[in-house]
Amino acid sequence: MQTIIGKDLNEAKILLQRNEVVGIPTETVYGLAANALNSEAVLKIFTVKERPHFDPLIVHTHAIGEIEKYVSEFPAKARMLLEAFSPGPLTVLLRKKAVIPDLVTSGLDTVAMRIPKQELSLQLLRQLDFPLAAPSANPFGYISPTSAAHVYHQLNGKIPYILDGGSCQVGVESTIVGFENNQVIVYRLGGLSLEDLERVAGTVIVNSISSSNPVSPGLLKSHYAPRTPFRLVTASEAASLNLQKNSAVIGFNEWLPVVPKDQQFLLSEKGNLNEAAKNLFAVMRQLDQMQLDEIVAVEFPEIGLGKAINDRLQRAAAKH
Ligand code: AMP
Ligand code: MG
Predict the structure, then answer these.
(1) 298: three-class secondary structure by DSSP
(2) What is the per-residue pLDDT for 263?
(3) Where do the H-state alpha helices sit in the chain?
(4) Most Cβ neighbours (<10 Å): which of 53, 60, 74, 147?
(5) Apex CA 218: angle with CA 19 and CA 55, to 5°?
């Protein structure tokens, strides 16, 4: 199979209607999309991605009114959050209707729903008469793709088409929240900050389960991982870091005086956490291709998107 990269909405639409899998842009990361209502199409996602069936998919639509078609309960707080942050990097877990195949939810009775903030994909979703199930478009466990070229690099020959929407504006996966007894529970930290969530929903509970518990939202302890040995250090450890020659450091905005500058990769020199999130996965990929002996990342401040960045860095380090 030849993989084509392009901006042809009609081509993407025709392929999806034929139950094929297509790479699509979103503001978080690129997705590997298929008709969410068709088990055969959804099965192809798992095969291409080599994703275990216990890891459920996110279903993408273009409007809150669309979400209503696929869920049987709509808690007030879910509606409030969607109204405040959709389209955007927010995924809500809601009780599913039977039209959503069990394969999409890995047998769970909730479905993860999201409205992506990406113009091409929103147009595509508006033109289709079904929603799109899409996990991130990377082989299972590897770093998520934030450009069409990243998707091509890993899935060339496995999917017919990648819709090119440029590089992702947010750069880390969506924040996943569930609802229990009028409480908001955060299952995955992501592109929508806790501060923003709490401004609208009041205090939220952050689910601390981060081991390989299959019923928790795919929060495998080791994920987003480069192949190069990867280590996470605190800012104070970094101050006296003894870095080997063929190694590199990922940091936020401050050069470490103890490390040569050409071995340092800052994600946002001006100190903007949103910009750092946007650059995170591209820099991790770039370094992973340099055949280094080690990548060392320095912990980010635990505010705003810094929390989601630290979460990804911890999971990347967990494999090594
Ligand atoms: P990905 O798009 O590759 O980041 O994967 C989607 C994430 O959403 C995974 O971590 C899933 O485990 C999680 N997820 C999807 N549906 C559900 C659900 N019904 N309950 C809990 N987590 C879910
Ligand atoms: Mg993923």
Answers:
(1) strand
(2) 98
(3) 9-17, 39-49, 64-67, 76-85, 102-105, 119-127, 148-155, 194-201, 235-238, 273-288, 306-318
(4) 60
(5) 35
Instruction: Note residues around ion ligand 2 (Cβ under 5 angstroms).
Output: 136
- Looking at the CA of 215, which ligand is closest? 1
Distance 59 CA to ligand 1 centre (A): 9
Between CA 77 and CA 65 the distance in angstroms is: 16
For the stretch 155-174, pLDDT in tens is 999 999 999 999 999 999 99
Distance (Å, rounded) from C-alpha 288 to C-alpha 282? 10
- Alpha helix locations (H) across 50-172? 64-67, 76-85, 102-105, 119-127, 148-155
Assess contact for 117 and 43: CB atoms under 8 A. no
Rounded distance, CA 4 to CA 164, Å?
A: 10
Closest protein CA for atom 21 of ligand 1:
217
With H, G, I as helix, E, B as strand and everything else as coil, classify residue 283.
Answer: helix
**Quick one: pLDDT band at residue 216, thresholds 50, 70, 90?**
very low
- Ligand 1: does its nearest atom lie under 6 Å from the Cβ of 111? yes
| Paired tokens of 157 | 């020959």
Kindly state the average pLDDT of the residues 216-223. Answer: 58
Beta-bridged to residue 180, according to DSSP, are: 183
The structure tokens listed for 113 are 């729903």
**pTM metric for this prediction:** 0.94
Cα 126 from Cα 61, distance rounded (Å): 8
CA of 55 relative to ligand 1 center, distance in Å: 6
Distance CA 53, CA 104 (A): 9
Q: What domains can you pick out in the chain, each with its CATH number?
A: 4-206 (3.90.870.10), 230-318 (3.40.50.11030)
CA of 2 to the centre of ligand 2 (A): 24
